Structure prediction request, 357 residues.
Amino acid sequence: MLNLADVQSEVQNDATITGNTLFIRPKVLLAVEREIMFHRNWSKFIVMLLVLATALAGFNVSAPTLAQSSPGLIVIITPSHDNPFFKAEADSADAAAKALGYETLVLVHDDDPNLQDQHVDQAIALGAKAIILDNAGADASIAAVRKAKDAGIPTFLIDREINETGLAASQIISNNYQGAVLGAEEFVRLIGEEGKYVELLGRESDTNAHVRSQGYHDVLDEYPDLELVAQQSANWSQTEAFDVMETIIQAHPDILGVISGNDTMAMGAMAALQAAGMTDVVVVGFDGSQDVMDAIKAGTIAATVLQPVAQFGPLAVEQAHTYITTGELPAEEKASIDCILITPDNVEEYFNFAPVG
Prediction:
């Protein structure tokens, strides 16, 4: 059974408060739930609640208290902030909402639809005025968005779309296909029109992973002498990409390039290639994360495709504010923003997903 020290440690590690914003990754809540389900004992249930309450009281965690002049609460839910892309979009949305006077609650779902559902329930219980959501799956998130709508709370989707229209207030996404075409064209320019290459795919449940792969292949498949020797998912993970590439390298030590569905996987692939002494293999990513921008400057990654993530959050907040104050929604539910190819020639012009200056 968890003790007070364990719970306090979890809360200290996984919850922070900055101004009017509570950011929490509720591992401790899930741990408590597991204890309750395991023991199925009401006396232990009460003890666990007391332990949790004491730990939270010691950390001074509470739901946002709305100032009298505040126009309300906006809840921002994204995947894990371990990926700088998602942290940047959450931070930009948070800053935009605060600039308009809103209280904010920033949560992460770690690509877990069940956890996402819990966060949506929390937003409903708190009477949020709007939800800004980078969702946990194109199909798995439909029910959560519908639930929020039924509760009278509009959901403004960013980065990832869902496979149903008429539920979200808006869906603001990158033009992933256009960006993938840019990345693939640069990849061919760098490795040439013949040779072996590898593709690292994103999470199977993510529509963006499929769209980017399609964009890549609509270019690469035009070159019959380019041979795809391995195509494998690394689930957007740097660690998983490292492990996958280690295995691929053993079977295909003569590859010329790796084209990746995102930047974190590109970083993992690059690390595996460097560990194997294969420093001349071309790696191209997708996102425009600062880690990869720095790697481009260092010459260890060749190129990436910048998603305009710095625009997603503020635009969604602006749409939410318009709806809250006027009841008006965008004329079109879906908005697509073009991506930008980043190479050594223009990498100095961008920082943290946005143009410099």
Notes: The mean pLDDT is 87. The CA atoms of residues 204 and 305 lie 20 Å apart. The chain has two domains: 4-173+310-337, 177-307+344-351. The longest strand covers residues 226-233.
